[in-house]
Amino acid sequence: LQSSLEAGAIADVSNELRLPRGPLYLFMAISALLSALGLLYQHFLVNEKLITPPDHGDAL
User: Fold this and answer.
1) What does each C-alpha distance from 29 to 20, 23, 36, 38 come to in angstroms?
2) What distances in angstroms separate CA 59 from CA 24, 54, 55, one per listed residue?
3) Which of 7, 30, 40, 54 could make an S-S bridge to 59, C-beta 3.0–4.6 Å?
């Protein structure tokens, strides 16, 4: 019984400490978009190979 009362008190405190998730999701979406645009720029506009072949034939 005591543990359930303590859990209720912790839940009340943690509700007040919630961070807004909207800005976090916006940051993650912008970060993913910039990463994808950078990858597309590197691959298509600069014409740089993303995976280079090994220099010699004995590589795995």
Assistant:
1) 15, 10, 11, 14
2) 42, 7, 8
3) 54
